[in-house]
Here is the input.
Amino acid sequence: MAILWTLMALLLLGFALLPVLRRRRGMIEQVHPGHPDAADPADYGFVREEDLDIRMPGPDQDLLDVLDVVQRTQEYRAAAQLLAGTEIAGELRWQRVQAFAGAAALELRERPGGVSETPGGQWLRVWRAEQPKDAGGAAVHAEFLVQQAWRTSTPGTDDFRIIMEEARDACGQAALLSPGDPVPYVIELSVARGLNYSQPEFEQLWLKILDRAPTHMGAHLAALHYWCEKWHGSRELAYAFAEAAAARAPQGSLLAAMPLFAVFEHLPEVNLVASFYQSEVVTKAVHGALHAVHSARQDDPMLAHVRHLLVFFLVRSERWSEAMGELMHVDGHVGALPWTLSANPAAEFALYRALAVAGYEANGGSPATLHS
Here is the structure.
């Protein structure tokens, strides 16, 4: 009988806590697009969910135009010309290499080829065959192999290792073709994570990047993964890496936002503490990222990455007005963390956007006050 009463008490307690637990899950179940109590994001001029661009974190019209030409004609020369004209040590080159490699990988997945069908991404194979000494094509090929490894095989398997070792060789070839270019080494950071480089090996690779582009934000984000708890480091090592990068960041550098990415990489899977997103560690990281965003060049290619992550944390922290301010800058493109971790990035982004609008209006905000 005592056991029965205990079970009944636990059941009643569970019913009592259920609404609380749902609210604790970041308000996700409170208001959603289409809910009768939800405010309308369209009132703020936001892009409809179905029109959100999931390919990139922010606009790059030159890249979009070239991708359209390459995929429509299966001719690589426009891509080669665009990369040849992109600054070697800049963030934009790294993003464009990723985009071309991702486009080829997606084409291959959609059209694997067969007896009577040319496989997708054939333009990249032709590019490498016709211009084997082109540094841009070599970098895209190396990144393509890395993406293929992560997309099509499981870490630790023979298939994964074989593709990653091929990618490592491709990184070496790309580096030889462009000695001052950090991108081949940035690509190898992902190889290092997949092939379990030792910490001394990883640090040697990292020094090669610092010699070429010491403030490269994309490289720092790629390196952070290695130091994370879920890979080859720990929470403490990841935080130390991010905080060191922020401490040495020059004025106007987005490296000051690195601690926020470290916090994101170590979020608890289940968080039942309502004040977590108002905790000192989160608040400090958010303030650092906000400072970085406000002091950075507005044409910095990595700016959108930081703004997207800020939207996530500001909504979770119920800082509605600041979240709306960031949304005004990034709306329309959702190819960035944290949305890309979802099976439907556009829907995930739209959900947080609806929460931001609802919270903003519940506290007296309106389209007129936001645009004033």
